[in-house]
Amino acid sequence: MSVLTPSEIAALGKVGVLFGGRSAEREISILSGSGVLQALKSKGIDAHPFDPAERSLAELEAQRFDRVFIALHGRFGEDGSLQGALELLGIPYTGSGVMASSVGMDKITTKIVWLAHGVPTPKYAVIDDNSDLAHLDRIVAELGLPLIVKPPLEGSTIGITKVTRKEDFQAAVDLAHKYDKVVLAEQFIEGREFSVPLLGSGPEARALPIVEIVAPQGNYDYQNKYFTDDTQYHCPAPLDAATTGAIQRHVENAYRALGCEGWSRIDVLLRASDNAPFLLEVNTSPGMTTHSLVPMAARAEGTSYEDLCVQILRSASLKQGQVG
């Protein structure tokens, strides 16, 4: 772990670590933010916690933070709404700007952009409140079984169902509808599961070492993701150089296509039948818990958790530019 000089600490100023929030991922955000806060303090940085679910934007402005580290996940923290408020308040922040955060939060819009840029992603269908059984039957005929049903605006595997029988499709849609008005049905890709963190912006953005995820019975759900030690992680992933390079090129293209900045994490499936990669989604404010994959990939390159937090914090900026 590197040591910051007094001038480097002073240059970062007063820092707010935003975590908690009002999304379904609040619990994980608190774990992420608490870790980030402790890491920054351990480096001598003047860092302070701030929970937007408990304190107002007026209070955020009154704190006169020089920059903020966004450790919020999901709605009202990762979806562009907070980013817009920070732009208006003139407070530099970590991660992507308003547009990339908003697009990245919506898995359907993400797919539309990726397909336009030649990024491989599973075939999909959209299900709204007016969809009937005939529509669901057509989706099964098009995508096949099994298929994945998920709310497009949630993360952390919340509301996701793997449908293996047609008669279970409606129940899966009903579960996803509890979170979103529109539901995403996605072709199931049988194969290995990976996640690829990225750092940087524009042409300087780069993929970190790939993480392979091996979950119990292949079920990488909320519990296995955050609260058990049964899931295995291999980093760098045991892949040949050609496959590693291909996956990293795809995720870098996908990251730039969405206009992401600062840092993100993109989830990937590698189809067993032909080793073809398929990109699933982007997380523009990834987890920073003890089980999280961005710190894991950084460690594989020799970067400590604390140094990673400082590196991300240094990238904080206003994306729209100063006016007046």
Automatic annotation (TrEMBL):
Its cofactor is Mg(2+); Mn(2+). InterPro entries: ATP-grasp, ATP_grasp_subdomain_1, D-Ala_lig_Van_CS, D_ala_D_ala, Dala_Dala_lig_C, Dala_Dala_lig_N, PreATP-grasp_dom_sf. It holds the Pfam family Dala_Dala_lig_C. Binds 2 magnesium or manganese ions per subunit. Cell wall formation. Its main location: cytoplasm. GO terms for cellular component: cytosol. Pathway: Cell wall biogenesis; peptidoglycan biosynthesis. The lineage of its organism: Bacteria, Pseudomonadati, Pseudomonadota, Betaproteobacteria, Burkholderiales. Belongs to the D-alanine--D-alanine ligase family. Coiled coil: none annotated. It is found in: Cytoplasm. The active site is at E25, S156, S292. Residues 111-314 form the ATP-grasp domain. PANTHER family: D-ALANINE--D-ALANINE LIGASE, D-ALANINE--D-ALANINE LIGASE B. PROSITE patterns: ATP_GRASP (PS50975), DALA_DALA_LIGASE_1 (PS00843), DALA_DALA_LIGASE_2 (PS00844). Mg(2+) 1 binds at D267, E281. One of its GO terms (molecular function) is metal ion binding. This is D-alanine--D-alanine ligase. Keywords: ATP-binding, Cell shape, Cell wall biogenesis/degradation, Cytoplasm, Ligase, Magnesium, Manganese, Metal-binding, Nucleotide-binding, Peptidoglycan synthesis. It catalyses: 2 D-alanine + ATP = D-alanyl-D-alanine + ADP + phosphate + H(+). The gene is ddl.
